[in-house]
Amino acid sequence: MTENKTKEELEQELDGQASEEETKTSQTETEDVAVEDAADVEADGGDEADSELKAKDEEIESLKQQVETEENKYLKLYAEFENFKRRNRQEMETNNKYKHQGMVEDLLPIIDNFERALKIEGDSDSFNSLLKGVEMVYNDLVNTLMKHDVREIESVGQPFDPNYHQAVMTEASDEDDGIVIEEFQKGYILKDRVIRPSMVKVSE
C-alpha cells in the first residue's frame, strides 16, 4: 500500500512537474509573444514616426520653395520699380535741362532777321540811329540766350563736322579739303544739344 501511494505520489509529482513545465512554457511563449507584439508595435511606431518626419521635411521644403518664389517676385518688382524711378528721374532731368528749347527754336528766325537787318547799309543819320537801336536789341537778345546756355556753333575755318554743320555747297579752295569756308546761316547749341546745325560751304 505504501509502495502504491508512493507510486501515486510519484506520478502526481511527475504530473505536477509536467504541469509546472507546461505552465512555464506557456508563460514563456506568452512572454515571447508579448515581446514580439511590443517589437511590432515599436516597429510600427518607428515607421509612423519616419513617415511623419518625412512629411514634415517635405512640407518644410515646399515652404522654402514658396518663400524663394515670393522673394524672386519681390526682387523682380523692386528692380522694375527702381528702373522706373531711374527712367522717370532721367526724363525729368532731361526735360528740365532742355526746357527752353522750344522758345530758343522760335527765337532763332528772329535773330536771323536781326542779322540781315544789320547788314543793310545806309548814309542818313536817321538810318544810322535806327541801325544802332536794332543792334542794341539784337545784342540784348543774344546775351539773354547766352545766359540760358545757348551758343553759336563755330564754322568758318573749322573742319566740316556733320554733327554740327550742314553742307549745302562745295567749292574748290586753297584750303584743305573738308574745311568750312563760308557760313550761310548760323547754327546754335543749347547746353550740349544741337538746336540747329550751321548751313555752310565746304572746300574740296
From TrEMBL:
From the UniProt record, list the coiled-coil ranges: none
Q: Which UniProt keywords apply?
A: Chaperone, Cytoplasm, Stress response
The places in or outside the cell where this protein is found are: Cytoplasm
Please give the name of this protein.
Answer: Protein GrpE
| Chaperone found in the keyword field | yes
Q: Which Pfam families match?
A: GrpE
Q: Which InterPro entries does the record cross-reference, listed alphabetically? A: GrpE, GrpE_CC, GrpE_head
Domain of life according to the entry: Bacteria
Q: Fill in the subunit field for this protein.
A: Homodimer.
Mention one GO molecular function. protein homodimerization activity
Q: Which organism is it from?
A: Salinicoccus roseus
Q: Where is the composition biased (Acidic residues)?
A: 10-20, 29-50
What does this protein do, in the record's words? Participates actively in the response to hyperosmotic and heat shock by preventing the aggregation of stress-denatured proteins, in association with DnaK and GrpE. It is the nucleotide exchange factor for DnaK and may function as a thermosensor. Unfolded proteins bind initially to DnaJ; upon interaction with the DnaJ-bound protein, DnaK hydrolyzes its bound ATP, resulting in the formation of a stable complex. GrpE releases ADP from DnaK; ATP binding to DnaK triggers the release of the substrate protein, thus completing the reaction cycle.
GO biological process: any one? protein folding
Q: Give the record's family classification.
A: Belongs to the GrpE family.
**Cellular component annotations (GO), alphabetically ordered:** cytoplasm
- Gene behind the chain: grpE
Keyword Transcription found: no
Show the segment(s) annotated as Disordered: 1-57
